[in-house]
Amino acid sequence: MSRSRLIGIFTLLVIVSAxxxxxxxxxxxxxxxxFRPWSLGLDLSGGTVLTYAIDLSxxxxxxxxxxxxxxRDVIERRVNLFGVQEPRVYLARAGGEDRLVVELAxxxxxxxxxxxxxxxxxxxxREVQEIVENGTTTAAFVATPLNGRYxxxxxxxxxxxxxxxxxxxxxxxDEGAALFEQLTEANIGKPxxxxxxxxxxxxxxxxxxxxxxxxxxxxxxTLDEARAFVERFNAGALPAPITLVHQETINPDFGADSxxxxxxxxxxxxxxxxxxMLVYYHRLGIYAVAALLIYVALTLAVFKLVPVTMTxxxxxxxxxxxxxxxxANILVFERMKEEIRxxxxxxxxxxxxxxxxxxxxxxxxxxxxxxAVVLYTFTSSFVQGFALAxxxxxxxxxFSAITVTRTLMRVFIK
Length: 414
Prior knowledge:
56% helix, Multidrug efflux transporter AcrB transmembrane fold, single chain, four-stranded antiparallel β-sheet, 3 domains
């Protein structure tokens, strides 16, 4: 690669890194733009954690998974009504029982939140009626006697043999079957609205009178769309009340203090690593320090762009990835020193050092990335934050060690 091209790449790295640094440092960035502020978790910004037990005693075993997922989706939509920044709603298991965990960062009116979240989702069917007001005719959905208490379940199925278009099958109890038959007979050719918590879920058109308490909703659904519909429908149709079993409130002042300590710990750890590299590797350490500064700026910018909700665990994952970034430089430098001891020229030793160290860097980083993926997949809450921060940090560290450090050394080593 020509020297002019190397200098061009180096200049681009410096410019992008400087921009990433400004973007990552909130006091500087807020003076320029309000785009993408840092997203902080409960342990850093304060807020409330609500844990609910799910009563599945009246739900058949075949429907439990669908009902639980549907509940999570309905509760997440309720939480979004509070305007909470980055709310998290997820499922967990404790003592063999299902739990629904709601994290509300910065919420002050906890009483209103618990009352709204804890209400059982309400499913109802509404028909279209024409309403005349001031000489203007409008079509509106109005309530009918048919609601979730008359529904047995919904499930995803497929049509005739050879056709793999998903369909949604609804089943009503005896009372519901009679009501549904009357409702469909009166609304042939009209949409029938299905609402959960006053939010329209679907409005299929009635093709004809439907007796027997079984109905099919057809359309151009994907399999994922059909499953999502069934989950939300069953959450409102099947009785699965939730009960608040644990509430934890984190004071915002405590979160701010934790954030200050976390930033100090991260900065101190990075500084100590830089000093070590300078003392042990001298001139080579300068390249490692410069690459590390670029790595920190770029990685923080990626965290903010994704965005990653930063928690104390996430900061720990990031600091650990800093060690991985330096570890890659150490492997390269040691290989380079071996080549110089054999009599190789500095530039040749540098290229051979990167070549020989790459397999070790690749294997160690991929192993860490696999571990991070497993942690993120099979855990929840703060452990997931740690795993995500570690994964992104390790990916960026590979880029830093192979691209940034190599470019710096190619530009400045004669």
